[in-house]
């Protein structure tokens, strides 16, 4: 399999030097892994998982550090510098990630977080990124059904909710009423498909859809009660923030779950307290 620039590759050590080891990168020749990244007791013949990129001298180099995003992926990153070339983002490597001015959807300022897509410039072999991501998403028909669990990256906040990248492939919308906690741009989270509209647009929820979300919390409540001597002070009168802190659900879902447990005679509800029966 060909070695890919901008991705993690499994490469074999073929030479040892005082300043590091050389790895067989197949189609890319031999690549240096500097000494500070070489694992203890590593020797010729060992295979290592390394990220391959161009250093500040535009020379191919390997590292055992894994950046927050690789070539072909979306991520929310923070701009740490802006100069005449473009904006530079922290992505977890010594060499920052460049978004050239020509690849900026809107003017990027230092300190801002933006959703970007990382790609390999075919002319220079440099890893760069773009914030012009709309055309890179929704290229196929969504394969989802209501209730499917997905990975999301939170994007821009709108007047109705948050735009989110779903599974690195689609745009979706997380309405405010379906986001029961504070979210920050660039945050990664798990969500659930609420519905796929006829026009292909996707609605999301941070909780399982329908009564399933109530069922999922029932055991959590019972376990919490059991671990705390059969009583708890988190009730249907508690604040949404307290309920979310303890059970990671909205107040509405928590109240439905308490109602179901009370109906099944598994708990007793009293002022300021829930008791396990």
Automatic annotation (TrEMBL):
Pfam families reported for this sequence: S1_2, WHD_CvfB
Domain Conserved virulence factor B first S1 span(s) in chain numbering: 5-64
Every Conserved virulence factor B-like winged helix domain range: 220-276
Family: Belongs to the CvfB family.
Name by which UniProt lists this protein: GntR family transcriptional regulator
Species assigned in the record: Marinomonas balearica
């Amino acid at each position: 399999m060909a070695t890919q620039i901008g991705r993690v590759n499994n490469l074999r050590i073929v030479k040892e030097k005082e300043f590091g080891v050389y790895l067989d990168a197949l189609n890319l020749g031999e690549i240096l892994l500097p000494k500070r990244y070489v694992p203890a007791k590593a020797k010729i013949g060992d295979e290592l998982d390394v990220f391959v990129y161009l250093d500040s001298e535009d020379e191919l180099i390997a590292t055992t550090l894994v950046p927050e995003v690789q070539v072909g992926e979306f991520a929310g990153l923070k701009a740490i510098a802006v100069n005449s070339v473009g904006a530079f983002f922290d992505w977890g490597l010594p060499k920052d990630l460049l978004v050239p001015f020509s690849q900026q959807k809107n003017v990027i300022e230092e300190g801002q977080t933006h959703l970007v897509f990382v790609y390999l410039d075919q002319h220079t072999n440099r890893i760069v990124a773009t914030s012009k991501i709309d055309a890179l998403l929704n290229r196929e028909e969504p394969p989802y059904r209501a209730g499917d669990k997905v990975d999301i990256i939170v994007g821009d906040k709108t007047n109705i909710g948050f735009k989110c990248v779903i599974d690195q492939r689609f745009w979706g919308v997380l309405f405010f009423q379906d986001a029961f906690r504070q979210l920050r741009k660039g945050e990664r989270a798990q969500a659930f498909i609420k519905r796929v509209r006829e026009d292909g647009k996707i609605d999301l929820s941070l909780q399982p859809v329908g009564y399933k979300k109530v069922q999922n919390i029932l055991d959590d409540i019972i376990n919490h009660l059991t671990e705390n001597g059969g009583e708890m002070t988190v009730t249907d009168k508690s604040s949404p923030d307290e309920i979310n802190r303890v059970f990671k659900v909205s107040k509405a879902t928590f109240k439905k779950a308490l109602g179901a447990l009370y109906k099944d005679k598994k708990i007793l509800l009293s002022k300021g307290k829930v008791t396990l029966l």
